[in-house]
Amino acid sequence: MDKQHPSRLRFNFGFLLEARIGTSRTIELDYPTIDVEDITLTPLTGTLVVTRTSEGVYVSGKLKTATAVTCVRCLIDTLAEVKVSLEELLYYPPEATPPGELFISEDGYIDLAPLVRELTILELPIHPLCKPACQGLCQECGANLNEKDCGCIVDEIDPRLAKLKELLEED
Ligand SMILES: [Zn+2]
Ligand SMILES: [Zn+2]
């Protein structure tokens, strides 16, 4: 982990590991903005319920966040709002952890940044739009058609279809 920028989603669950099975605590997250590895979340809010189980700590929660994405039509950065649900068993002790599962270190700490990052990215739209009716960029001059009508006359036929039409006509 980067020593200069310790994760702000690193939690100490030592108190819970000492507690009886079934003990729960609620953790409120309320970050106006937070860097989670390589992405910035603005904001990150929500509630996590952490419960001691026989295998470790079960985390369950719902988070709300937003992060910058690029509109696929006009290429402008826009915030995509996402809701993230967490349902995760964090194993303890580390040596009792099945392969590929998350675990709490011997000292009781776990960094939830990789999990929050992964779950957020999964919820991001595949083809983000700045708004549903984004007009995109002019194919001729590149103007942002949301801002102005550049007046270009764009050939209605998609260039790929035009090529296909040529081929069909050759036949
Ligand atoms: Zn757009
Ligand atoms: Zn144009």
Structure description:
- By secondary structure, the protein is of the alpha+beta class.
- It folds into two domains: 125 residues, no CATH class; 37 residues, no CATH class.
- It is 16% helix and 35% strand.
- It has a four-stranded antiparallel sheet with strand order 2-5-6-7, covered by helices on one side.
- The protein starts with 9 loop residues before the first strand and ends with a helix.
- The mean pLDDT is 92.
- The structure holds zinc ion (2 copies).
How is this structure best summarized?
The chain has 171 residues and is an alpha+beta fold. It is 16% helix and 35% strand. The chain has two domains: 10-134, no CATH class; 135-171, no CATH class.
Give the arrangement of secondary structure elements.
Layout (H helix, E strand, L loop, with lengths): L9 E3 L1 H4 L6 E8 L2 E3 L2 E3 L2 E9 L3 E15 L6 E15 L17 E3 L1 H11 L35 H12 L1
Antiparallel strand pairs: 1-8, 2-5, 3-4, 5-6, 6-7
Please describe the biggest sheet, giving its number of strands, its sense, and whether it closes into a barrel: 4 strands, antiparallel
Which overall shape is indicated by the principal axes computed on the Cα atoms?
A: elongated
Residues in helix, %: 10-25%
* Structural class category: alpha+beta
How many angstroms does the end-to-end distance come to? 62 Å
Bound molecules: zinc ion
Mean model confidence by pLDDT: 92
Number of DSSP-assigned strands: 8
Q: How many helix segments?
A: 3
If strands are numbered along the chain, what order do they take across the biggest sheet?
Answer: 2-5-6-7
Q: For the CA atoms, what is the radius of gyration? A: 24 Å
Number of separate structural domains: 2
Order of helices and strands: EHEEEEEEEHH
| Uncertain residue ranges | none
